[in-house]
Amino acid sequence: MNAITPNSADLDQREVLFTPLTVRNVTFRNRIAMSPMTRGFCPNGTPGENVVAYYRRRAEGGVGLIVTEGIAVDHPAALGDAGLGENNIPVLAGDGPIAGWRAVVDAVHAAGAKIIPQLWHQGAMRKPGTGPHPDVPSVSPSGIWGPLGRMTSIDPGSIPADPRIGEPMSDEDIEDAIQAFVRCAENAMKAGFDGIALHGGHGYLIDNFLWKETNQRNDRWGGDRTRRSEFAAEIVRRIRAVIGEDLPIFFRFSQWRQQDFRSTLADSPEELGEVLRPLAEAGVDVFDASVRYYNSPAFKGYPENLAGWAKRLTGKLSMAVGGIGINQGMYDRDKPVQAVVDYAPLLERFGRGEFDLIAVGRAMIGDPNWAEKFRAGQEPEPYRKENDGILT
Ligand SMILES: Cc1cc2nc3c(=O)[nH]c(=O)nc-3n(C[C@H](O)[C@H](O)[C@H](O)COP(=O)(O)O)c2cc1C
Questions:
Q1: Which helix (H) or strand (E) holds 357?
Q2: pTM of whole model > 0.85?
Q3: Structural domain includes residue 348
Q4: What's 204's DSSP letter?
Q5: Any residues with Cβ below 6 Å from ligand 1, and which?
Q6: What does 42-98 look like in DSSP terms, one character per residue?
């Protein structure tokens, strides 16, 4: 019997991922989260019955926590066409969307899981002239998209000819963007969510402040790594003030971004500490370290992955993601997708306390019952990219 055909000892080892975890006053029944995944099934920003059923199925399938798809914050430049049709990305403002999300939250709770919304502002990555407010310009801290000609998978037609896409944000622009996050956090409370997740990676607005190439400011919001974290830290503090002390805040960050897959925020653990510590002090409870392969060491010379370093450097909890339940990374298309993988390295790292939660992305689209099947050693349905256009 090989490592990917589980025997009873292997299955026993998997049980470590089925211990509950309490963060602040919220208890997740196990350590398996659904990773945030944009699907584009919310006409006019509003989740309907099909979206309720989609998330309900994952909760019924045993997941402990759902991090929703990216939800655009209540700011005119937050959202453009993400390649999924105009205005099909959810929002969290106004009676219709709040009621839609309330129905999602109730369904997920009834099935025993917790759910938090991922608040998202596309920043420099927003495609100008698209989204619910096509006339407003896109925003970025220094008015910069990012250096051109770097390694990216963005369609060349969507890369601006000039890296300068607008004016640097004024203090008032920055305050407006912060307030948009805070308003959505307030609305999330009205919808009954169990906490807040912030999208601080992948080249979007919060990451535009963290990355030196897009943040060339020399004021409160820019400078060295610690100062570049101030925008994110201010959002975290202000959200904490409105959601109170009982609910967790998750923060997703990434070394890479769509403008430049090879770029980094930090080239050593010390530098990563400079980025993350201000966020931990501001009130982040769980760092969600977005990488393509959870099993990759984050820095040369050490085995720990990025989630492991986030935990070690801040003393907070962390969540690992990337290639769990699937044999290839998110941007790799070179081999046939397989849903059966060797979990030994994952369980070993988890057992060492490197991270506290795992997030499963594409495998959870492929099979809503992924968590239960993983526990029982059954083979899940594989993820099929061609099915991204349907909500199963
Ligand atoms: C269809 C799709 C949509 C995604 N949308 C988001 C998103 O809205 N926010 C986000 O932070 N990550 C998004 N991601 C990244 C996933 O959350 C996850 O980090 C990535 O797929 C790697 O995990 P996996 O290997 O388990 O799929 C998306 C991924 C996919 C496949």
A1: strand 357-360
A2: yes
A3: yes
A4: S
A5: 35-38, 69-70, 118, 199, 252, 290, 321-324, 326, 330, 360-363, 388
A6: -GGG---HHHHHHHHHHHHTT-SEEEEEEEE-SSTTS----SS-TT-S-B--SHHHH
The band of 324, judged by pLDDT with boundaries at 50, 70 and 90, is very high
**Angle (nearest 5°) at CA 129 between 133 and 75:** 30
Q: Cα dist. 299→127, 201, 258 in Å?
A: 33, 18, 21
CA distances to 1, 249, 265 from 243, rounded to whole Å, are 50, 9, 29
Domain that holds residue 236: 8-387
Tokens of 243: 């959601």
Distance 106 CA to ligand 1 centre (A): 24
> CA–CA separation, 192 vs 161, rounded Å?
43
Residue 118 CA to ligand 1 center (angstroms) comes to 12
Calculate the alpha carbon distances from 298 to 105, 226, 265, 269, 355 in Å: 35, 20, 12, 9, 13
Write out 128-194 in H/E/C secondary structure.
Answer: CCCCCCCCCCCCCCCCECCCCCCCCCCCHHHCCCCCECCCCCCHHHHHHHHHHHHHHHHHHHHHCCC
Residue nearest to atom 10 of ligand 1 (CA): 36
Residue 277 contacts residue 232 (beta carbons within 8 Å): no
Q: Give me the percent of the chain exceeding a pLDDT of 70.
A: 98
> Quick check: is 90 in a domain?
yes
Q: Which two tokens stand for residue 278?
A: 């201000």
| 124 assigned to some structural domain | yes
Which stretch of DSSP H or E encloses residue 114? strand 114-120
Domain count for the chain: 1
- SS3 state at 255: coil
Across 343-372, b (16+ Cβ under 10 Å) vs e yields beebbebbeeebbbbbbbbbbbbbbbbbbb
Give phi and psi for 293, each to the nearest 5: -130, 115
The amino acid that residue 347 corresponds to is L
Q: Pick the atom of ligand 1 nearest to 292's CA.
A: 22
Which residues, in sequence order, are bridge partners of residue 65?
A: 33, 114
For the stretch 8-28, pLDDT in tens is: 888 999 999 999 999 999 999
- Could you tell me the CATH number of the domain that includes residue 91? 3.20.20.70
Among 93-107, 245-259, 336-350, the minimum mean pLDDT is found in: 336-350
Residue 304 in domain: yes
